[in-house]
Amino acid sequence: MPRVARRLDAGPWGFFSRPGRGALGLRGRIVGAVLVTTVATLAVAALALLGPLEQELRNASLHTLQKDVHGKAATGDFADLSLLYLGDPNKGSGVAAGLRQTEHDLATRIGSGSYVTVLGYPDRHGRGSPQLPPLSSDSDAAVDTYSDTGTAFLTHREVTSFGTVNGTPYARVAIPFRSNGLPFVLAVRKPIGEITDAVHVVRSAFLIAALAGLALTLILGIPLAATLVRRLRRLRQAALELAAGSPELELPPDRARDEVGDLSRAFTIMRERLLAQEEARRAFVATASHELRTPLTSLEGMLELLDEDLHENDPDLHDARTLLARARVQSRRLGRLAADLLDLSRIDTEVQLRSEPVELGELSRAVMAEFELGTAARSLTPVLDDSTGPVWARGDPGSVARILRILLENAVRLSPDGAEIRVELRNGHHALVRVCDQGPGVPEQERELIFQRFQRGRQTGGAGGFGLGLAIGRELAERMGGELVLERGQGTGATFALRLPVARAPDGEPLLHV
Q: 159, 225, 271, 367: which could join 174 in a potential S-S bond, CB 3.0 to 4.6 Å?
């Protein structure tokens, strides 16, 4: 056994015994692939979510500001601005106070930190500075440049934008309007600093979730990959031991419902089949060596005696003829063994069989004629019952003849002298051939055993063959789409039935059914 181990490590299998030191290994590749996939997914999610998040929130805030301005303020609230602009000494101070209050109320309704300013321009082209100073007391309003109001004045359209005053980001709306024919612009500012804070919170939460996801991936991925690799290594080691010639090894059962579990179960099935083949091979070697040794030894001894008789001055011709007859018997026995082994090799290599209509009556007569000498010598009576008319089956003529030959040979060998061997042909759902003998029969516990290779029944009276015939017959029948079975008969003897697919005669002769 140590010698085998050295071969696994350093011999022809040593290349496959373990991965190279520089190899990443399946576990590393699995964990790396999962980790890269997770990182790539998180990166794509960050680009798709966090990138446009701040801009989307800013746009939503600006849109909300527009709705609030249009819904809560109207330029009609500033209808008396012209009096302040024209400098009416009686009404100007009152208009200024009302304007200041209107700005304050509008800013309060829009939101905390907002401020509203009304600006007037000296001419229609927007040249120069705003004529009316900001009335809001907000410090940001005092330093606001109001760069968007000039555009609104010149285009006569509402202008929305974003800007920063004293480091505070604002959503800006500039609405142009006229009062008593004079142009004015309503400037509304709403702080959006909370958007930046919210985006920062989201990014922090996303980063924490990403790190937690990566950690969970490693926590779950590494043990999973390790378990998978361990199971595969166990299979690899079992495969190497099997390749080294140890089909008896026991692989621990893998009951996992995954691909590796399926592979393990398939490997177990393969091992069992290899073990069965190995046992069959050993049985064949033992049986063949035993069966070959006896006829070969007898044949060699008889040939030596025959040679001695022929070299004598007065040879005993009667004894020589007896030895020659016995040698022929052993030669025929060796020929049958060679034929059986050839049939087995053809079955195992799955040689394609022919599929054509075969008339079983004519074929049965031809095969039964081969046994005329053997049956006559023992007063056996072969009977062919084809009373139902022609029986056509689909199959390979040579294989059908081989099966009939096997069944008749067994019937002749096992039937007592003077017995009847009956061959019946029937039509029906299948083309049927029955071979009935009056031999010792088959015990119940051996009904299926006799169809296995190198297995013989016990009630053969020492006249058994090699245990290959019925196994060959059943496998040939199955390859032609039929079956070979042992029927439960009445009385003594055995009845074997060959069922084959029905075929129509080439000339269109109708089939008879019973």
A: 159
Q: How do 420-426 and 381-385 pair as beta strands? A: parallel
Q: How many CA atoms lie within 13 A of 286 on its CB side?
A: 10
DSSP E strands, 71-203: 115-120, 159-165, 168-179, 182-191
353: which 2 tokens?
């069989």
CA distance to 45, 47, 173, per residue, from 196 (Å): 19, 17, 20
In whole angstroms, how far apart are CA 288 and each of 165, 295, 339, 457?
105, 11, 13, 17
Q: What stretch of H or E contains 216?
A: helix 193-243
If you compute the radius of gyration of the chain from its CA atoms, what whole number of angstroms results? 52
The closest of 474, 440, 472, 473 to 457, measured between CA atoms, is 440
First to last CA, the chain: 65
Which residues does residue 420 pair with via DSSP β-bridges, in sequence order? 381
Q: Model-level pTM?
A: 0.47
Strands 115-120 and 159-165: unpaired
Residues in the chain: 514
For the chain, residues with pLDDT lower than 70 are 1-27, 71-102, 121-138, 180-181, 245-252, 254, 280, 283-284, 287-288, 290-291, 294, 345-346, 348-350, 454, 457-466, 489-491, 507-514
Q: In this structure, how many other beta carbons lie within 10 angstroms of the beta carbon of residue 140?
A: 17
